[in-house]
Each structure stands twice: as C-alpha cells, then as structure tokens.
Amino acid sequence: MVELTVPAGIQHDTMLVMRGRGVRELQGSRRGNQIVHVKIEIPKTLSSKQKELMQAFQEEEEKKKAGGRGGGGCSSSSSFFTGGFQGRVKEAYARIKEYLGKEKEKEKEKEKKSKEKKKSSASA
C-alpha cells in the first residue's frame, strides 16, 4: 500500500507524481512513477449542518476582509491564501452561496404554495 498526503488547497484536475512508487520494470528492479489524478466533487445538496458550517465560513471570511484574523488562524495559513488560490476560493464560495440562496427561495415558494392550498381548501 502507498500513502499520499494531499496538500491543502489542492484543485480539481491536479496531477500528483509519486516518484518511484509505480509499477516495477518488466526486466529490472526499478519502479516507475505513480501518477495520481485528483478529482474533486462538490456536493449538489447540503445538510443543515453543512449549511451552518458554510455560513460560519462566510462569517470568518468577512472578518478577514474587515481586517481581523477571524478566530486566530495560524500564521502559516496566511502564506497559503495568496495569489490565484484566494480568488478561486472566493469564486467557489460565491457559487455555493448563490446555490444556497436559490435553495432558500425554493423552500419559501413551497411554504407559500402549501399555505395557499390550505387557504383554498379551508374556504371551499
């Protein structure tokens, strides 16, 4: 078995190379490289707990923007969130926030329709 530590912030479609951890040569003792193709899936639905966590994440991000560190994050993470990665995180967060907003609107519409049905059945 081969173990691999996935670096924090890894992106979809990233290729990781594990040198000397692949298949042995046919007539030799050397090993080739094992290539790991990272596929990240974003869930289509979120539980209420996951929604709460995303909202907490949003609040922490807003605290950072306001100048605070947002809960005393470790100093090594500040060098991690630099350059293009931070932009991708913001973009992903915006998409998730938009999706959750649409889900909330759908729930409100369902509630409204069920109330209208109750009113119409009560008046009939």
From TrEMBL:
Domain Chaperone DnaJ C-terminal: 2-43
One of the record's GO molecular function terms: unfolded protein binding
Record's compositionally biased regions (Basic residues): 115-124
GO biological process: protein folding
Source species, domain of life: Eukaryota
Region (Disordered): 53-83, 100-124
Basic and acidic residues composition-biased segments: 100-114
Gene3D superfamilies in the record: Urease metallochaperone UreE, N-terminal domain
InterPro entries: DnaJ_C, HSP40/DnaJ_pept-bd
Protein name per its UniProtKB record: Chaperone protein
Annotated source species: Nannochloropsis gaditana
